[in-house]
Amino acid sequence: MKIKLPVTLYQRILSILSFLLLIGQLLCLILRWNSLPDKIPTHFGLNGQADAYGPKGSLVILPVITILIYLLMIFVEKFPELWNVPGHVTPRNIGWIYGNTKSMLVTLRFAVTFIFFYINYCSVFCRDLGAWFTPVFLLLTAGPMVFFIWRAVHFNK
Known about the structure:
Elements: H1 9-32, E1 39-44, E2 50-55, H2 61-77, H3 94-124, H4 133-154
């Protein structure tokens, strides 16, 4: 059964912001390429400090990974009938349950593009991520999942 989900304003705004972050990541790298030092941060520890360095060519990996994840998430969003959604699905709530799950996926896509944009930005400008990065990263990735799954499970109550 093919499920057709409308796009909400929330989903549209986050989709546009995700795309802009993806383009921003590419532009940041392209515009700064000639002024990048030969060695740039390639890995950061849990404290947000750079702990490994490599050639500037290694920065190309970040946008490639971002693009692959971005496209994979868009692909998954296009086939809701394949999702294993949280909560009890009934004919009455099917639209809401699947819409809620789509909002979770769109939110996670935004979080991932934001995180990779920030890592790319810090690498391009040879800055540390900051000690706050790890807890914020965990909140940005786990938070939406917890929130939207909680909503789905408690929708019928």
